[in-house]
Amino acid sequence: MDTLASDMQKVLNFPDQMEKMLHQPARRYVKNAKAIFRTPADIYEHPTFYSFVLDMPGLEASNIKVKVENGVLHVSGNKKKKNAGGETTVESNNGGKAIRIERRRARYMRKFTLPNDANQQEVKAVYKDGVLTVNVAKKPLEETNKPKSVTIPIS
After folding, report:
1. Which of 6, 21, 135, 137 could serve as 122's disulfide partner, Cβ 3.0–4.6 Å?
2. Beta-carbon-side half-sphere exposure of residue 83 (alpha carbons within 13 Å)
3. Domains of the chain: total
4. Residue span of the structural domain in which 132 resides
5. pLDDT digits (tens, 9 = 90+) for 52-69
6. Is pLDDT of 148 > 50?
7. Rounded CA separation 118/111 (Å)
8. What is the CATH number of the domain that holds 61?
9. Which helix H or strand E contains 42, and what residues bound it?
10. Does the residue 89 lie in any domain?
11. What is the pLDDT of residue 76?
């Protein structure tokens, strides 16, 4: 019985790397879920465009990515502090010693399925005071509701 228990223990004890590989999708999902909940958004419809307004405080514009792919608007951003050596560091306040750090990094992410009349080629983004505004133009009305006639050959 002891050998069975020890054999089971050996089988069930994966190396750390194997454990990380097996749980990677779950970890990614949890990180994405936290990022999604951390990123509140408002969506507005205007006569000629849609406007997506997202709170993403503490980021630099260069750390924000906006892309449209297959009718989905992807918005993401990361806040990390790096020193000259490339290592992540904690920002000190005027050279003071940090006692507690709760704001050192953050991840923001949202995905929005665009309406059929959204022009995926005309997307503009502006980031100011921690708020990202993404405007997606609408297609002209004639282009979205254009009737199509099909000629059927007579045999």
Report:
1. 137
2. 7
3. 1
4. 39-138
5. 999 988 888 999 999 999
6. yes
7. 15
8. 2.60.40.790
9. strand 41-45
10. yes
11. 92
